[in-house]
Amino acid sequence: MPKGKNDDGGSTNVADDDSEFVLGVEGPGIEPKSFDVPRTLDFIQAFLSLVESMTDEGALPIDGMRVSDGSVEFTFQSSNARGLRLLAEKSFRLIEGREDPMHGQKDRLKRVRTALRKLPNTYDPFLKEGITGYRMKFPRHYQEPEQHIERTSIRGQILVADGDKTIIKLKTDAGMLSLRTDRPTVERAGSSLYRHIDAEVEITYIGSTPKDGKLVSYDLVPQLTPDQELSEWRSWFSRVGAGWDTVDDIEAELRKDK
Question: How many Cα atoms within 13 Å fall on the side-chain side of residue 189?
Fold first, then answer.
């Protein structure tokens, strides 16, 4: 029984209803003794693989095949027809570029799009539910997600400075971030491993998915002694918080209010 995965990776249960599904192609030039077998099979396998990546149930086994004048049909059973319809609709949104693929779906999605593109122009791929007649035609074209670049400022700790790949890796509050840069910058960062930096970066997104990052510039976060930190606090509080600039132990003073 196919169970869909929701956006956080968990399973979504929907009502059970047994049904046969038909996945195939139709159009002129398809005959029992003559049709494009390799490209048709590649499409069937690619689409089922994409749907399977969104379920917890593993493979969707094909249990029958029918070839007639004008169509080739492959049948498989589902004990959860509504769930499979939802997964099919999600797959169509992915194919059309109206939804971003999750981790593990990108290669399968690419294979489906390639298989659809290679089908003969006269072939119309479809998915049909046998009992209700619910029918969906596959999109033959898709819109590539728009690419855009966002510039932002981040603070992170330098953990890797790779001269061969000319990248540095930062540990940030959001996790590890790999940034492209040039060799002089890598060498400079390599001399400051484990130091914290304030960096200006450019992140390239495909749709809403981050693709890669580029380091624009950075400054080392000053390493202060305890006395210097206290001086910095006093200087700041003298500007914004009357009376706090005379306190020696700011943390202890704050704890008094708890």
Answer: 29
Q: Is the CB of residue 31 less than 8 Å from the CB of residue 40?
A: no
| Residue-wise pLDDT tens digits, 50-63 | 988 887 666 777 88
> Between β-strands 19-26 and 71-78, what pairing exists: parallel, antiparallel or unpaired?
antiparallel
The residue type of 87 is L
Question: CB within 8 A of 96, min separation 6: which ones?
Answer: 139, 141, 142, 143
Amino acid type, 70? G
Q: Are the C-beta atoms of 33 and 70 separated by less than 8 Å?
A: no
Distance CA 239, CA 94 (A): 54
**Both ends of the chain: CA-CA distance in Å?**
55
Contacts of 12 (CB under 8 A, 6+ apart): 3, 4, 5, 6, 83
Written as six digits, the tokens of 82 are 């509504």
CB count within 10 Å of CB 184 equals: 9
Secondary structure element (H or E) that encloses residue 190, with its range? helix 183-190
The pTM of this model reads 0.54
Say if CB 100 and CB 207 are below 8 A apart: yes
pLDDT digits (tens, 9 = 90+) for 154-204: 999 999 999 999 999 999 887 888 999 999 999 999 999 999 999 999 998
